[in-house]
Design brief:
Helix content is 39%, strand content 13%. The chain is of the alpha+beta class and 89 residues long. Strand 1 and strand 2 form a beta hairpin. Helix 1 packs parallel to helix 3. It is globular and about 40 Å long.
């Protein structure tokens, strides 16, 4: 996968939800060999063009943290669900 870029379009309410939906869409294809934890995900917002890069290590750490506010708890549960991770937290 070195030097290869994949693009998917998703509709999401947050940056991390977009990362999760994109990963889920890409991982759903047999021709994708795998995405290493060290890779960076680029997110582009279509309404007003904004790009973000999220290191997968940071994304994983964020996903593993306990939410402080009800919104954070809800966001993490929704994103874990998108990725097929048990939402016991």
């Amino acid at each position: 996968m070195e030097g290869v870029a994949h693009t998917v379009e998703v509709t999401a309410a947050t940056l991390y939800e977009a990362v999760a939906l994109g990963l889920a869409a890409i991982r759903g294809n047999d021709w994708v060999a795998g995405i290493a934890q060290g890779n960076v995900i680029k997110v582009s917002v279509a309404d007003i063009r904004v790009e973000h890069e999220v290191n997968l290590v940071n994304f994983s750490k964020w996903l593993d943290r306990t939410g402080v506010s009800p919104r954070e708890v809800s966001d993490r549960k929704r994103i874990r669900s998108i990725l097929g991770i048990p939402v016991s937290r």
